[in-house]
Amino acid sequence: MQNPANSTVVSDFAELPATASHGLLRIEYRWVNEVAVNAPIAVFLHEGLGSIAMWRDWPQSLCERLGMRGLVYSRPGYGLSTPREHDVKWPVDFMTEQARDILPALLDALDVGMQERRRMWLIGHSDGGSITLLYAALHPNELAGAVAIAPHVFVEDISVESIAQTKELYETTDLRSKLSRYHADVDSAFYGWNDIWLNPAFREWNIASELAAIKQPLLAVQGHDDNYGTMAQIDTIAERVPHAQLVKLDACGHSPHRDAPGALNEAIAAFISRQR
User: Fold this and answer.
1) Count of domains observed in the chain
2) Which of 170, 192, 224, 245 could serve as a FRET partner for 82 with CA atoms 20 to 30 Å apart?
3) Residues 130, 52, 173: CA angle, nearest 5 degrees
């Protein structure tokens, strides 16, 4: 099946069995830079409204720069993966479920063994950055290191305000039409993300206390002009994970891989090269 936004890219699918936390899932995924067959794997975790298609060619270009093979996938509810049923609300701990249950199950389905996982890097953006942090905390012996780009560690007013504004744009402008190019069920994707972030109960969500369990190398990146979070997010990471390295990018908003790809790629490449 083809990705919604790119007719030249063909997705593969993995079937994940039902568990106590989720039903049977069909996950859209794609390998990039497949020529690097013996190289470490970089797993890319997309933002709250992201998908394989929304990454565009950044994972490919970064993997070529790093000499890695990349795994890109659309989380449940996004892209061409199993959509969220419209009457289902994401739970407050939905990102923990993604790190604890979904990603490990996907790696199992793709026969990514423990030896490969110990060489694996996670690279996550926004919600995907939070899932990256949680996976690193929950599975400290199953990865080589992690890169969290504009991650959320706790809920800030600026995040809620921007997400509320995005809802208004979705319902009153052509934003819905634009996003529909990247998701088979665009309302499933949008409202799954928007409803949980605007749920009053989610204001108490905070994973700072869990970060101390992260033992592997960690890079956290934030743009100074991010309208979804402040530097307090990655500063909190540094407080809880003393070995973490921070990069703060000028003239960069919430999406460094689009706003400042050169600076981001350089920072990631330099960081990972120091760990090898």
Assistant:
1) 1
2) 170
3) 85
